Amino acid sequence: MATPDGRDEHAVPGSPVPGGDAPGAGTPPALGGEIPFRPLSISEILDGAIACIRLYPRAVLGPSLLLTTVIQVAGSVAAYFFVGRTARDEVTPGWVVRSVGTQFTLGAFGLVLSALAIVLLAGLMGPVIGRGLFGRRVSLRGAWRDTRPRLGRLILTALAVTLIPLLALALPILPFALFIVTDAPAGIGVLAGIIGFPLGAVLMVWLYVLLVLAAPAVVMERQTVGGALKRAHALSRGRWWRTFGTCLLAILVTVFMGFFALRIPFLLVELLFFGSGSGGESATMLALAVDTVGRIVSWTVVLPFDAGVITLLYLDRRMRREGFDLELRTRAHERAAARTSSVPSVPTAPAGNGRSPEGAPSGDDEFFEAWRTPSLSRSAPQGEPVRSGPGAMP
Fold this sequence. Notes:
The protein is mainly α. The chain has helices at residues 42-55, 57-82, 93-133, 140-147, 151-181, 186-211, 214-220, 225-236, 240-261, 264-274, 280-322, 324-340, 366-371, 374-377. It is globular and about 80 Å long.
């Protein structure tokens, strides 16, 4: 349940009440002022994802281009060897059935790889949006330096976020497959399919939405893989429908832009030069190459949008549940008061690759320490979610 300002009623107590949308002293607004430094509405999250791409194109589009190229080239090579080389002038019904099944399998494989790329990009964009939040300069080299110490954990987290929902999809469908293989009565097989497929789809979507915030958490909070999954569950609890609705809107925008708007010029080229179907194998390869380039261009632009939405959802959940923006304002006021009264502040590590006061590894400077939860930065075990309510730490 939310308070009038949009926060959870069990948000971290002891934080000052914000005086409007403007951040506190010493705390610059997020992304150059284009995103309010407070809990975000759905439209602000969608606009903020676009703003991040526009403000930091090299840091965002560089990793996206690399991931998209690998995925789309792999998909095109697989499509050529499994579909393209079997094409013939005289199409038989059996070939059509096999071709449709093969293309469906390749399409599903491509969607899984795209989902994996989105989760990876969400982790990579965490430091980009985070440093923009603090008003710091963001570059491709800096984003790589921030992510590199946790790259292995980010990859494992992305695999877990992608594969766990897929396993949840497969388990309810398993009885249907067994009934088909064992030649069980048709009625039992149909009933298993009617129950299994919808149940598997619901479980897949529920788990994906519940775990997707783990990617930013593993990078920004320097979590373990298990700790990041627990943090994602803790942050999504009570806000599943809001997270689902925002991700659904982002996917609709992605599908429209990726499948239609940005690919229209390349589809026209394919239609004009290769629409007749003549030219043999060389023409097939050229048409596939044009289609691959079109998919690389379109998905390089739209995948960071989905990833940015996930990262901003993580930021929004921390603000609503833990009062993260209020905590940063409080720290800024304390530092300003310490400077005014000439009281030396607590020393922190330099903003480079030095070691943090807690002995974090190289690259874990005070920027990442600011993102760590109170329980993580004090005495709680690594990965334990922050408790909210009367027992929460102010």
